[in-house]
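Hi support team,

I submitted a single chain yesterday and got back a structure, but I'm not sure I'm reading the token output correctly. Could someone confirm the output below corresponds to the sequence I sent? I've pasted both exactly as they appear in my results page.

Thanks,
R.
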Amino acid sequence: MSLLHRFRRYDFDASLAAGTDVQQLGPWRTAAVLLVSRVERLEVNEPLMAEAAPSALLAALAARAGARLRGARRPRVVAYAIANLAPPRGAGGRARIRAVLARWSGARLLALTDRLAVGTPGALDLYQELLPRQLATCDHRLVPALPAPCSCPRPRPDEGAGAETTGAGVDGRARTVLFVGALERRKGAHLLLQAWPAVSAARPGSRLVLVGRGQLEAEAAHLASGDDVDLVVDPPRARVHEALRGASVLVLLSQRTRGWREQVGLPLVEGLAHGCAVVTTQETGLAGWLQEHGHRVLPAEPSVAEVAAALVAALDERRPASSVLDQLPGTDGRFEADAWLEEQPSRPS
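Hi R., thanks for writing in. Yes, this is the structure output for that exact sequence:
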């Protein structure tokens, strides 16, 4: 298997790609490689990922052109979709041209796609709204982006009612709220920082653990100067898992911005996988499932008072980790989607 990519994110774990041919290439070099390579299955960025649609379309066209030149069977094109916000239309000038190109490329790319695995109901609704004709010709399936329980040891049944957790003291897990992710306004970190003093006053002995880095790091550090808040900046993955095991409530108050909406939210997925009760907003693609399964889903733009009340209620509930974990699928949704994308498409090639 080969992985061709344009940009390397700061959180890319190279160890997970051991044994894989990983190449960082631009769009035209990627197309050149695909043109001369024997490709059986090509997974591309999803069609409604505006910034990637033109280069993804170029890659798909190059792979299929190469197969035609060699007289080989055309490669299957597949994608995984979680976009839940319509691509921006551009304010004018070059931005407008880029937006038009992205929309055209996305529609053409979906028309070339054999299979599309859709991770959330919100994403499926968006594709049905924006690209109904192309979606109808593509074999697609909703595969909810839910995690399987993490392989970490499960919290003991009594931990929700007063067991000791390393680093948090007696009754640690039941009293601990955790934030993992970018300390930014789009992740709702400002709402959490403002709400915590009210939570702390209402439930003395509660603890907030902030794991991440970002624009609000200084404000988080100031709050962490107190006795009931810990700030852990950019820790290794093992430390993140430790924090997840030691918390009963995971909070992520995603806020929509121009051109961005929380598609799923990795911290939410990881919190569920570790048995955490979730406090979030309607902005995540998992909002419907979370609400149906007893988690707290706030309005898109909650007040600080609403955030504080939800956190207090979640702490008071002392929800056992087992009641969260037992509602999860046995196979991670992304793995299930990958397995389906690897199968032969139903439409003829």
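A quick pointer for reading it: The radius of gyration is 22 Å. Let us know if anything else looks off.

Best,
Support desk
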